[in-house]
Design a protein that fits this description.
heterodimer; A: about 325 residues; mainly alpha; MetI-like fold; 2 domains; B: alpha/beta; D-Maltodextrin-Binding Protein, domain 2; 3-stranded antiparallel β-sheet; 13 strands; globular; Extracellular solute-binding protein (chain B); signal (chain B)
Chain lengths: ~325, ~575
């Protein structure tokens, strides 16, 4: 009996506590909440509201009729995409480019950050950082212009090859070279910028840990394996999961600036294909359909990666 | 405190909600507008026929009328103006006619995307210059969607001078009227046959003279010349250009085809799977393999092509009289006095043959057409304004600018002043020409051949026009160019298929050219694949469109040549 009485009392007590908690929280974090407000509004306005536009993937969107009044066509655009001879090729190319990026471009900033961490000279370190950051701030269009010049028949790369007695190749018309050039120049572009986050997490490692292992007789390598690497592992895992979540998406800008019909074989990816079909030919519904398909695959990948990571090493996004 | 906060947040919520509602309202209002105006159009014209006051639109307008126009600006104009409204011609037009014209220029290179985005945004100007080729479904679809309006019946009323031209040269209607009998805009017309063509191949005259070789006329002769350029002049890219250049009809025409759709004996033929295309491809493969074609065809751009021609790496290419010959000759005049170029006629297989394709732009130039949109509120005034270009006075203004400033009349011949031809600030004629006139671009008027005579000042340029029109008469008689407009339905049926085919075709051609695949071994597979992608359906659709066109315009079977400029002399 008393137990029964206890319960309603408990409920009555809990309700005001929730409001009070909010009130208390608001009082305490008023300015923080205020500061977060624009960001929340931005997410709602530009990320959630436009989501309703995704229904054009199932419609024949006509700008004049608007989103709502365009006719429904069901799964026609999805069928169009999967029936196209390019579909599997662009999916394969997208996945492969991303796979190579994961394999080569993902570890690159980690290695750079670790190397920089071992550098004792402050000036040398700062110089290297500045030099490696620089390409990140140059526009993709300019970067691609430079790449085209470098890889031309009379360009820098061919000059080097010729100097060592090799024969000149026109790299950008060779389908076999495209991914190498794409991923390689991607590393050049992003390695410095990408290393910042690892350098930040390196500074977060407690220096006492290093002192402790030094006393225990650990050398540089042992320190690295047992302190440094585990120290930044959570950051690496989180970024890895996020990268896997982008496996199906790769920006079209760099691709359309570098490819040509002779490299379509390896260079044509989903976004460049969508760019040609969707934006240039104004077939917005088709692009929306492919975009939706992309997002679904990405979501599946990120959820799976997160799940696996949580099971295996207890680090995860959520 | 808490209550007031709740109230505040409620207020905020209502505000946000109101904002959304407003946005929604705004967007529906915009789309609603287009629909309304479309509905309102016939009523308007009905009114105008009943009230005589409406038909008397006089120039200059009593009150300033403002027009907005979507009009790509050529990069050659950029050194002197960022917007066409700054041009002297535009200021003069505004003074004479009491109009205000606002120009919207897309960024060069992304005009296609911006065009579609403009239409999507719903903010549509009064005039749109261009073909509407980028609009899915073309002009007919744009009309169905309520963007364009049919002005056929209004032209005789408000644009009498244009109507007079149509009356004198009814063949023009083939180009300006749809099969349904609609007209959406006014054309840019070329006044004389001698200025229809400005494109073709040219090569180093000094090298030819040195090697004692004649200007090549056949494919074999061209082969000999390129071989000599390579072996004796050390050219690393004897023929330079882009893949599009060598796939263009300049070369394929020698085999009697183009790589796209053309007409043969009343039947639509798709060139890229024609056996003659195979022969053409094999020749190009051979040339490429022997190093006669620029190995960098696939990655070339204007900059690299220029460098190769001015750097003695290349001896031949294709291009325009103005931007090709007119660029290289002055550029090299001081650097290398020996440097000289000569045009070569469209090549043929055997002496005595003729090349049935010729780059030809005229008498109507579609990408210069001024289309009138449903957003235009003053249709009579708009037409009256456009009509001005087809009057004798307007024609002089559009072609030569302002008398005493940009031209002077010498025995009735309008001669450009030094401001245009020999600008004190060193700006080239192509730039200054756009500042004072529209002859160097396009517009709602008849382009005068006297503009061209002064623009193409170099003897090599004048000569090139004659060389390239060598087969002009036979080309007109052969009449192989495809004509006909697909309906919006047909467009949506074929676009996807056509794009797949184009991608595949371009890719295969490069694979063959670069020797990655053997033409003989893969040709059947290639044709088979293109058939699988639906080429036969497209050909059928195109055949139907062609048949409809011929039914509506039987005169297309017997094309006549005429010179529109004559109308001003009559």
């Amino acid at each position: 009996m008393p137990e029964l009485k206890m319960q309603p009392q408990h409920l009555i007590y809990k309700k005001p506590s929730l409001i009070q908690a909010i009130k208390k929280d608001y009082k305490k974090n008023k300015w923080l909440i205020l500061m977060a407000l624009p960001v929340v509004a931005w997410y709602i306005l530009f990320h959630y509201v436009p989501m309703y536009g995704v229904i054009i993937a199932f419609k024949q969107f006509s700008p004049i009729k608007g989103i709502w009044d365009s006719a429904w066509v069901g799964l026609r655009h999805f069928q169009d995409f999967f029936n196209s001879i390019s579909a599997w090729r662009v999916i394969r190319n997208t996945l492969l480019i991303n796979f190579y990026q994961l394999l080569f471009a993902f570890p690159a900033p980690i290695i750079l950050a670790l190397l920089l961490n071992e550098v004792k000279s402050k000036y040398f370190k700062k110089t290297i950082q500045t030099v490696t950051y620089l390409p990140h701030f140059v526009s993709t269009v300019v970067i691609c212009g430079m790449i085209i010049d470098f890889f031309a028949k009379s360009g820098l790369i061919n000059d080097i090859v010729a100097y060592f007695g090799g024969s000149r190749t026109i790299f950008l018309v060779e389908a076999g070279w495209f991914r190498t050039i794409y991923v390689g120049t991607g590393i050049w572009q992003g390695v410095g910028w990408g290393s910042i986050i690892y350098l930040a997490s390196l500074t977060a490692i407690d220096t006492e840990l290093y002192e402790a292992v030094t006393i225990d007789g650990a050398g540089r390598w042992k320190q690295f394996v047992h302190i440094t690497l585990p120290g930044i592992a959570p950051t690496i895992v989180i970024l890895l999961i996020m990268n896997i979540g982008h496996m199906m998406s790769e920006g079209y800008e760099k691709v359309i600036l570098l490819y040509n019909p002779s490299t379509y074989e390896t260079a044509d990816i989903i976004s460049s294909y969508v760019y040609r079909r969707g934006l240039v030919e104004a077939n917005y519904s088709f692009s929306a359909a492919v975009g939706l398909f992309n997002s679904i695959v990405n979501l599946t990948l990120i959820v799976t990666a997160n799940y696996v990571s949580r099971k295996v090493n207890e680090t995860s996004l959520w | 405190m808490l209550k007031s906060n709740v109230r505040k947040s409620k207020k905020l919520l209502t505000k946000i909600a109101a904002g959304f509602l407003l946005m929604a309202l705004f967007s529906t209002a915009l789309t609603g507008c287009g629909g309304e105006e479309k509905g309102g159009e016939p009523a308007d014209s009905a009114n105008s026929t009943s009230t005589p006051a409406d038909t008397s639109v006089t120039l200059p307008f009593k009150e300033t009328v403002t027009f907005r126009v979507w009009d790509p600006l050529m990069s050659t104009a950029l050194p002197i103006m960022k917007n066409y409204a700054e041009s002297e011609l535009n200021k003069e037009l505004e003074r004479r006619l009491n109009v205000r014209i606002e120009y919207i220029h897309p960024t060069e290179g992304s005009a296609k995307e911006q065009f579609n985005l403009m239409l999507t945004s719903g903010d549509i100007p009064d005039f749109i210059v261009g073909t509407f080729g980028d609009y899915p479904g073309g002009r007919e679809k744009a009309f169905e969607d309520g963007i364009l309006v049919d002005i056929k019946n209004e032209i005789p009323k408000y644009a009498p001078d244009l109507a007079k031209i149509y009356e004198a040269y009814p063949d023009l209607l083939m180009d300006v009227e749809t099969e349904e009998g609609r007209q959406f805009g006014v054309p840019f017309l070329k006044g004389d046959e001698s200025i229809y063509t400005f494109f073709g191949g040219f090569l180093r005259k000094d090298w030819l003279t040195e090697l004692e070789l004649p200007v090549p006329e056949t494919i074999d002769e061209l082969y000999t010349v390129l071989k000599a350029f390579k072996e004796q002049k050390g050219a690393t890219a004897p023929f330079t250009g882009t893949v599009g250049n060598i796939k263009g009809m300049y070369f394929t025409g020698a085999w009697g085809i183009n790589q796209d759709y053309f007409i043969e004996d009343g039947k639509v033929v798709y060139g890229a799977i024609d056996p003659r295309f195979k022969e053409y491809t094999k020749t190009m493969v051979k040339w490429y393999k022997e190093g006669l074609l620029d190995p960098e065809l696939a990655t070339n751009n204007t900059k690299t092509i220029d460098a190769k021609i001015t750097g003695n790496q290349a001896g031949a290419t294709v291009g325009n009289t103005g931007s090709g010959l007119g660029k290289y000759l002055p550029l090299m005049k001081n650097k290398d006095p020996e440097f000289d170029l000569v045009a070569m006629p469209y090549p043929v297989l055997n002496k005595g043959d003729f090349n049935p394709f010729m780059a030809k732009d005229g008498p109507t130039v579609n990408n210069g057409a001024w289309n009138i949109t449903s957003a235009c509120e003053n249709l009579p005034e708009a037409l009256a304004f456009l009509n001005y270009g087809y009057t004798k006075e307007g024609s002089l203004l559009y072609n030569f600018g302002i008398e005493g400033v940009s031209y002077t009349l010498e025995d009735g011949y309008p001669k450009y002043t030094d401001l245009v031809t020999n600008n004190p600030n060193g700006q080239p004629i192509a730039t200054m020409g756009q500042y004072y006139t529209r002859a160097f671009k396009d517009g709602p008027f008849v382009q005068d051949k006297r503009y061209f005579e002064q623009y193409m000042a170099l003897p090599q340029q004048q000569e090139s026009l004659k060389t390239w029109t060598k087969y002009a008469k036979q080309v007109t008689e052969a009449n192989k160019n495809y004509r006909g407009t697909l309906t919006p339905d047909e467009v949506s049926q074929t676009t996807t298929k056509q794009n797949e085919i184009n991608t595949y075709k371009d890719e295969m051609f490069l694979k063959w050219l670069m020797g990655k695949e053997d033409v003989d071994a893969t040709w059947d597979k290639y044709v088979e694949q293109i058939k699988r992608l639906g080429i036969e359906d497209i050909i059928q659709v195109r055949q139907n469109a062609y048949d409809r066109f011929i039914e509506k315009f039987p005169q297309a079977l017997n094309p006549q040549s005429f010179n529109i400029s004559d109308i001003f002399d009559k």
